[in-house]
Give the backbone structure.
Amino acid sequence: MAWLILFSAGVVEIVFALSLKYNQGFTKLVPSIVTMFAGGGSFYLLTLAIKTLPIGTAYAVWTGMGAVGVAILGVLLFKESTDWIRLLSISFIVIGIVGLKLTHVD
């Protein structure tokens, strides 16, 4: 269950980070509200996950999910670079997340 909560925290973290782009320095009301709730929700879910999971593992997975999710959506939504080094670097983050999950003993 903690891994599902952590995954949810990562998804909400992606929403949080993307909403930062859309709120334009907290000048847009709805994206600013999304930013506040998503940020709080992401942290809350992370705190639930770390009741069971090691903090180092949970935090690395949470930030990794956010980084990968935002990088991929940056390409799709904002036409950011798809340079091979960028894509390879994103792949390394994914490998690290999978490795942390595989090496964690429940």
About this structure: The chain has a mean pLDDT of 95.
